[in-house]
Amino acid sequence: MARIDFQTDPSRYRHWKLQFDGPVAHLIMDVDPAGGLFEGYELKLNSYDLGVDIELADAVQRLRFEHPEVGAVVLRSGKENVFCAGANIRMLAGASHGHKVNFCKFTNETRCAIEDATENSGQTWICAISGPAAGGGYELALATDRILLIDDRRSSVALPETPLLAVLPGTGGLTRVTDKRRVRRDLADLFCSTEEGVRGRRAVEWRLVDEAVPPSAWEARLRERALEAAARSDRPRDARGVALTPLARRFEEGGVFYGHVALEFDRGAGRAILTVAAPPGPPPATLEAARDAAFWPLQMARELDDAILHLRLNEPELGLLVLRTQGEAAHVLAHDAFLEAHGGDWFIREVRLHLKRVLKRLDMTSRSLIALAEPGSCFAGTLAELAFAADRSAMLIGARAGDNRPAATLRLSALNFGAYPMANGLTRLQARFWGEKESLARAEARIGEPIGAEEAETLGLVTFALDETDWDDELRIMLEERASFSPDALTAMEANLRFVGPETMETRIFGRLTAWQNWIFQRPNAVGERGALRLYGSGVQPSYDKQRV
Amino acid sequence: MARIDFQTDPSRYRHWKLQFDGPVAHLIMDVDPAGGLFEGYELKLNSYDLGVDIELADAVQRLRFEHPEVGAVVLRSGKENVFCAGANIRMLAGASHGHKVNFCKFTNETRCAIEDATENSGQTWICAISGPAAGGGYELALATDRILLIDDRRSSVALPETPLLAVLPGTGGLTRVTDKRRVRRDLADLFCSTEEGVRGRRAVEWRLVDEAVPPSAWEARLRERALEAAARSDRPRDARGVALTPLARRFEEGGVFYGHVALEFDRGAGRAILTVAAPPGPPPATLEAARDAAFWPLQMARELDDAILHLRLNEPELGLLVLRTQGEAAHVLAHDAFLEAHGGDWFIREVRLHLKRVLKRLDMTSRSLIALAEPGSCFAGTLAELAFAADRSAMLIGARAGDNRPAATLRLSALNFGAYPMANGLTRLQARFWGEKESLARAEARIGEPIGAEEAETLGLVTFALDETDWDDELRIMLEERASFSPDALTAMEANLRFVGPETMETRIFGRLTAWQNWIFQRPNAVGERGALRLYGSGVQPSYDKQRV
């Protein structure tokens, strides 16, 4: 299968148009039916596949970095008769289980990125629904802060997945309806089992949308709402945006290589090795000089994001991801200090938020994550989050014989204590020391200091400290053993153990909702020869096994 | 298949022994290998199937009601060489998907009932592990308040499901390890991928157990811990227990009939109709007179529980459960007032806690729940919870022509506002009005008053108020439509919509963990011809599809 590429830019969009009007941007969905990522389906009625969502994710990202002047984004349809019909059914019906699951995961992450922009970037998303918004179409609207529905008898919102396709509205729909929009549960039940959806005033009464607007007032109201939102924004109107220039990447047989990130493949062992390099030097002298796609934290985050997505979609058989770092910890910490000192700046805020999202993407990646800290490594500050995201971590005690690189140390920065919350709202260290306030305080007291392997183990910051004699043997056995387990059991085990404690709407979407949807995606009533997803559009009625489980 | 019966009593136990020593009870697991519920497997090494767990659930229940003098329960093994090997693998390998799911659900509910006894009934459970406690064996221990492990080199705790069987420790294990015992996530990862488990001091260091006790001190330490726990109990030492006498039931072709509860089957329509009758009269004059298995709230709760379990396990094709009530609302409310007035009494507390658990069982039941309030019904106080547990509810406006029963009204009691929290810690009305404090306050202001159909709809207490002309037609269409949907999609949709807002360890177990386990129970790597669960014990190595999804 052709490689799925997550890099794009507006000049290459086939499905979206961006228009700018001072502090308001309009993102117009106008899917090219012939532009599907794979063969065998047409993207009719603004339905989408992963390719459409890759462009959307790119737009969300560029609006933040390239358009500081934009305080509100209006999401709308470029088609006359439809807002969006949701995920393309024929694509879903023909996709492998793994593709379906990863498609939903990515689309969920994109919708969370839209919410993150609204909540944290001063860029409020507003949805303008004209024409039917069904399934994933309405779920896209649910990710925005305010939903306007044109009250014209043909425009409606619907989550018809259960009656029509025997699956769930799995891109957050069930969760956002009850938890974000606070639709009463019985009304939500009614709504989610009604194929034709809900229009006009009833949609407002049930809280499915915020306003139903008469056609005559539509454009004026939209403009008004967008300008109101933009007026609340703290983004600078006159700043220069930072262009997200194309990533320099090299795809080779043995891996993908970026400026600061390398993703190498060991196919025989079923593993990938991700190495993140420290910045080559100290941070720029001024904030102005930092405003560039080459600013290390930004470039590294973008490369890491691309590498994770490449691994997820294009390398499903590499079940283990070894996390490594290399370079000068001091340079990492100096960059952290820079990010900390300028946290109030719009661009630095975006860099930090992007790092947060990339680290969340790592948390949500269904591969066993093993961090290895060896001489010459730099698990410091932001890069130490890689070790804290790992299912296990090991640190080599001291230097290696005949190797003049310094012994591995771990260093903490202020950013480890709040900048990068996980989906559950906890920092990775809070999650690690859940219920152990003293351990957390002990770690915090050591900010900035180099912590050797044995001490890191004592402090609970790594799983193992091993000396050189044990390192090679024990790690080999550990990695081989891990690779011998059932990938499914590991995926589910990791999805449970990684998220301790509190739950948020986001973890509910990635936990309860997604896990149930993945179950459905295995059930004959949906995906079997006579299942609804398979038969949709064929004219043949699905035939269900009526047993409840 | 033979009917699975959830009623038993100690005289019929094949797998457990109860011993009493003043304020301490000992519950001894001594599984009869030949006592499996089905053919085809032997319950070796104290492994269990649903039959074993039905006896356990019965014991948990009887200890609360029949033994007010017991303040501590010590759970231990009656076998020399093993504590408990967990769920029987051959049983699991041979069971249908539906049986596996329902088996896990019931065992999870039993473990939650153990925690409920510790937290709310003054009956603290302590686990004494001697010999290996593996998988479900250790998960049973995790449900207790304190785990003692004999430090004898052969006793250990383990969750070997992932490496050994390619499934999860799905009876709460993954969740309780991180969230209840606060085992650090990387140590939990290590523990859950180690077949042989952990012993002695390391088990204490990792918080897997509370103490590792030398064999010489074992019995004395156990006794000490049990007496300490019993001393903290507020249960009365000299009260008379209330015997849980056998339920009078009639199994007929058309349903199961109890004293206050009827479960009728409409197989053609794929539905069951559950009718709960109000008490025939006012509550007893005195607390002493109430202490009897015939006390309406207790008998009704036990009957309702049995009916729900019968439906779950023995009638999988009835996907719709219609909830009805009939009788005098005044008698229900008088009983609620009695339960409210005597909430401090140990027996009344048990009755209320049992009602809470039965209503939770209903919430967790994977059937569409539709409450219908017609003339002569009594959705009042405790019985109104049935309507609030429903996915939808409908109420008939006014009386029926030619029917002299009074029009349906809904009445609230104080018990609707705190006595029966759901698994997420919210009352059903709080969940219903999540984010709508005013609606909740408006309902609370109406405690005791009869609320007619139209007003109930306006207050948001029911989904629909329908007049007689619409009632028959609209309901017929609604029920037929519901029955035509995919049972799987409905199960998953309901599991999401029923639980809004906060999450607890319990909802995480029934949500995230269970949903992932149900997914695993569909995956070829576990249940396929060459899957680990199927091949376990055969000597043939499983062969895994290495793709991560």
CATH class of the largest domain in chain A: Alpha Beta
Over the alpha carbons, how many angstroms does the gyration radius of chain A reach?
24 Å
- Helix count from the secondary structure assignment of chain A: 22
- SS strand fraction of chain A: 15-25%
Shape of chain A: globular
Mean pLDDT value of chain A: 97
The helical percent of chain A reads 40-55%
Helix vs. strand class of chain A: alpha/beta
Q: pLDDT below 50 for ≥5 consecutive residues: which ranges of chain A?
A: none
What's the CATH architecture name of the largest domain in chain A?
Alpha-Beta Complex
Main sheet: strand order of chain A: 12-13-14-15-16-17-19-21
**Main sheet record of chain A:** 8 strands, mixed
- How many angstroms separate the termini of chain A? 36 Å
Number of domains as seen in the coordinates of chain A: 2
What's the arrangement of secondary structure elements?
2 copies of one chain form a homodimer.
Chain A: E1 16-21, E2 24-29, E3 47-48, H1 50-66, E4 72-77, E5 86-87, H2 89-94, H3 97-120, E6 124-129, E7 133-134, H4 136-142, E8 146-150, E9 156-158, H5 161-165, H6 173-180, H7 185-192, E10 198-199, H8 200-205, E11 211-213, H9 218-232, E12 250-252, E13 255-257, E14 261-266, E15 271-277, H10 287-290, H11 296-314, E16 320-326, H12 329-341, H13 346-363, E17 368-373, E18 379-380, H14 384-389, E19 392-396, E20 410-411, H15 428-432, H16 437-444, H17 453-458, E21 464-466, H18 468-484, H19 487-497, H20 505-520, H21 524-527, H22 532-535
Helix pairs in contact in A: 1-3, 3-20, 4-6, 6-20, 11-13
